[in-house]
Amino acid sequence: MTTRNRLNTAIAAALLASVALVGCKKKEEPVATSTPPATTEPAAPAPAPAPAPAATVSVTTVDLGTAVGADKKVATPTATFKPSDTINASVGTTTSDPAAAVPAKLGAKWTFQDGQTVKEDTSDINFAGPGQTVFSINSPKGFPTGKYKLEVMLDGAVVQTRDFEVK
């Protein structure tokens, strides 16, 4: 064999050997690259729930009349009275939370036409749910004829008014 053929044979043998090695080589497992866990800020604690709004009381009705039933409601509402009548005001109230007692001051201010105070009442009450409160005025000598006004107050603020007349 000539040198040239030997060289070609040697190259071919080396080539075959390298192909054989590559073909027999064990497949490598892909290298898993571990990524560090993402760093997150610690979760902020959930905000405390907002406190429930405090229960409130409100005046729902005001009726005037001469007679009040066992339920503390005016039997026959009217806005006209005789001088000798006892005048009753039935004040209906309710609370925003029927299960909660709501302390408040309920008042009634009765005035004559010139603004003169005839009578003023206030009561400290623990309200719970719906209720009725009665305020009354009377005069043994009889009321002077004329126009009157009732102001119903809740914690000192006027929440409802009623005009009435004595004839």
* CATH architectural label of the domain at 57-166: Sandwich
Count of individual beta strands:
8
- Overall mean pLDDT score? 84
Which segments are poorly predicted (pLDDT under 50) over 5 or more consecutive residues?
none
Helix-strand makeup class? mainly beta
Note the gap between the termini.
151 Å
Radius of gyration: 47 Å
The CATH C-level name of the domain at 57-166 is Mainly Beta
Strand order of the largest sheet: 2-8-7-4-5
For the biggest sheet, the summary is: 5 strands, mixed
Give the strand content. Answer: 35-45%
Kindly report the CATH topology of the domain at 57-166. Immunoglobulin-like
Helical run tally? 1
Question: What is the N-to-C succession of helices and strands?
Answer: HEEEEEEEE
- CATH homologous superfamily designation of the domain at 57-166: Macroglobulin (MG2) domain
Shape: rod-shaped
Describe the structure.
There is one protein chain. The chain is mainly beta and 167 residues long. It has a domain at 57-166: Macroglobulin (MG2) domain (Immunoglobulin-like, Sandwich). The chain is 13% helix and 41% strand. It contains 1 helix and 8 strands. The strands form 2 sheets. A 5-stranded mixed β-sheet has the order 2-8-7-4-5, with no helix packed on it. The protein has a 3-stranded antiparallel β-sheet with strand order 1-3-6, with no helix packed on it. A hairpin with a 4-residue loop joins β4 and β5. Residues 1-22 form the signal peptide. This is PKD domain-containing protein. It comes from Lysobacter arvi. Residues 31-43 have a biased composition (Low complexity).
